[in-house]
């Protein structure tokens, strides 16, 4: 079984590539010439020519001498890398809001060719099938893989239940996990900070993770309480990996808020101690100093569990009894459920946009409350009343902590991005990470700050996630690999998205190929849709 698997997925494609390179007179479908190849392994850039036939790389040669093709892309002056893999994307969740083909411009203009859907526990087998069918019907410019989501299956088995699962319910959920893995999902994801995952016991999650092990799957987690119990929450995930033998990825790892500022080193030390014991654990990170963005008025909760509109908010704040009830719901959740203030705390909230009061930008809510001599809730209420369009990030992160974590070689790059259409932009929820995570690392953190060389930045976006996710034919430029390729200018590549302009396209990405076809040419989406559903390909263990 293992020999057959290796021969089919590795040896045969490599042999085919070597034969293609040696065959005289062959005319390839496409040649990429003149560029500096950054092959995804972490090796330094080198000049090379790439031959592509159909959806595969068939030869990589030191030069184009003796090679012929129907089409040639001259990449002189550019870097040529494997297409980037976003291991944590919420973009597919919004496909229902899109019209026409799934072109995903925000990812293509960053060089992303594969997105992994279903993080944070989202996605049941039924919703995954629905997305696959819709993407196939419309056509997709990017490849997509999927997690099977704990919250999705828990809601299916235990609709509306906020309690621990019974043994029978865990068994039914495990069957759905296996169903997802049989569909080709890359692993199990959890969102333990959110309803209903927050009511799951550690034993429940471990039992479900064991269901992915026979398929060679992995475990990806939005941990239980990263705001108030950061180290304990990340340790719970590592404990799962140690108990089950399933590889673990800590999703969008960061040290959030005033409480955790300067403490990311504690998590790094815990992870690396576990790695030294043989636990397979990695993380992903987006390169911005704040988590999700919301208008301040959306963060209040009524006792009904709903967020008030502006009129209802003002009315509740003006009535002492209604104000007290709203404060309880906002700060404690309704019936023990989720609320943003409960989850992250006022000390994790920083103002990122205040159109009528720019002097408030970058102010932390907890520190502002101390300055004003008010409680954090009363500060919240004053801000929401006086500045309707004020927006906050709900997970402020210190820049020094961002860089400390990003230096670790086991940290891959992800966007945690949502589809930022006009509706999302108008709602104030768009985040610059959706349009600029990968290019910000290439330009700002690699080139300008100098955290690591270009080839290491590319490795974090290609072979590292490909290997972890079991996407064995992606993530490297080599004969037999899929022809997912990005051509970019290393001197100018960078993000242009900001909290004020979250949908500004990146600079420096010239051409993107997905499965051998151009989906971005001269920085513009072509409209081609060669993207496919990628199944986990790692051999079962």
Annotation keywords:
alpha/beta, TIM Barrel, seven-stranded mixed beta sheet, six-stranded parallel beta sheet, disordered N terminus
Q: Could you walk me through the main structural features you see in this protein, from its secondary elements to its overall organization?
A:
Keywords: Hydrolase, Signal. InterPro entries: Amidohydro_3, D-aminoacylase_insert_dom_sf, Metal-dep_hydrolase_composite, Metal_Hydrolase, Metallo-dep_Hydrolases_sf. This is Amidohydrolase family protein. It comes from Sandaracinobacter neustonicus. One of its GO terms (molecular function) is hydrolase activity, acting on carbon-nitrogen (but not peptide) bonds, in cyclic amides. With 541 residues, the chain is of the alpha/beta class. Among the domains are: 260 residues, TIM Barrel (Alpha-Beta Barrel), CATH 3.20.20.140; 101 residues, no CATH class. 36% of the residues lie in helices and 18% in strands. The strands form five sheets. It has a seven-stranded mixed β-sheet with strand order 3-2-7-20-21-22-23, with no helix packed on it. Helix 2 links the parallel strand 8 and strand 9. Helix 5 packs parallel to helix 6. The N and C termini lie close together (11 Å).
């Amino acid at each position: 079984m293992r020999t057959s698997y290796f021969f089919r997925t590795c040896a045969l494609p490599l042999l085919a590539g070597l034969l293609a390179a040696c065959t005289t007179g062959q005319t390839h479908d496409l040649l990429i010439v003149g560029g500096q190849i950054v092959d995804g392994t972490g090796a330094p850039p080198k000049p090379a020519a790439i031959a592509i036939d159909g959806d595969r790389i068939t030869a990589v040669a030191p030069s184009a001498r003796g090679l012929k093709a129907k089409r040639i892309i001259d990449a002189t002056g550019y870097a040529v890398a494997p297409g980037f893999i976003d291991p944590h994307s919420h973009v597919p969740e919004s496909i229902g809001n899109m019209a026409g083909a799934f072109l995903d411009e925000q990812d293509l203009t960053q060089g992303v060719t594969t997105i992994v859907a279903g993080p944070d526990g989202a996605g049941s087998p039924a919703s995954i099938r629905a997305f696959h069918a819709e993407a196939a019907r419309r056509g997709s410019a990017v490849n997509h893989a999927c997690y099977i989501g704990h919250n999705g299956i828990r809601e299916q088995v235990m609709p509306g239940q906020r309690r621990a699962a019974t043994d029978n319910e865990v068994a039914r959920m495990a069957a759905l996990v296996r169903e997802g893995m049989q569909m080709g999902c890359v692993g199990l994801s959890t969102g333990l900070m959110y309803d209903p995952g927050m009511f799951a016991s550690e034993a429940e999650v471990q039992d479900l993770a064991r269901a992915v092990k026979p398929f060679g799957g992995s475990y990806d987690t939005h941990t239980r309480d990263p705001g108030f119990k950061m180290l304990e929450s990340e340790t719970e995930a590592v404990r799962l990996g140690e108990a089950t033998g399933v590889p673990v990825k800590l999703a969008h790892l960061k040290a959030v808020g005033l409480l955790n500022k300067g403490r990311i080193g504690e998590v790094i030390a815990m992870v690396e101690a576990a790695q030294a014991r043989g636990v397979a654990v990695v993380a992903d990170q987006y390169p911005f100093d704040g988590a999700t963005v919301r208008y301040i008025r959306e963060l209040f909760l009524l006792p009904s569990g709903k967020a008030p509109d502006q009129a209802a908010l003002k009315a509740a704040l003006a009535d002492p009894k209604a104000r007290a009830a709203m404060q309880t719901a906002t700060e404690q959740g309704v019936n023990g459920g989720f609320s943003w203030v409960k989850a992250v705390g006022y000390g994790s909230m920083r103002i990122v946009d205040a159109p009528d009061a720019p002097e408030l930008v970058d102010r932390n809510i907890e520190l502002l409350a101390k300055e004003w001599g008010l409680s954090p809730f009363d500060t919240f209420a004053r801000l929401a009343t006086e500045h309707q369009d004020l927006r906050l990030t709900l997970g402020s992160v210190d820049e020094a902590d961002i860089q400390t974590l990003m230096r670790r070689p086991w940290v891959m790059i992800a966007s945690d991005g949502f589809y930022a259409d006009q509706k999302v932009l108008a709602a104030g929820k768009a985040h610059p990470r959706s349009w600029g995570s990968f290019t910000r690392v290439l330009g700002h953190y690699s080139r300008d700050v100098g955290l690591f060389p270009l080839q290491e930045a590319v490795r974090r976006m290609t072979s590292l996630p490909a290997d972890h996710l079991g996407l064995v034919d992606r993530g490297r430029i080599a004969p037999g690999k899929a022809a997912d390729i990005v051509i970019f200018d290393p001197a100018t590549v960078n993000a242009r998205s900001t909290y004020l302009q979250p949908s500004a396209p990146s600079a420096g990405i010239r051409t993107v190929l997905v499965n051998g076809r151009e989906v971005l040419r001269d920085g513009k989406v072509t409209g081609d849709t060669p993207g496919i559903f990628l199944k986990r390909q790692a051999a079962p263990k």
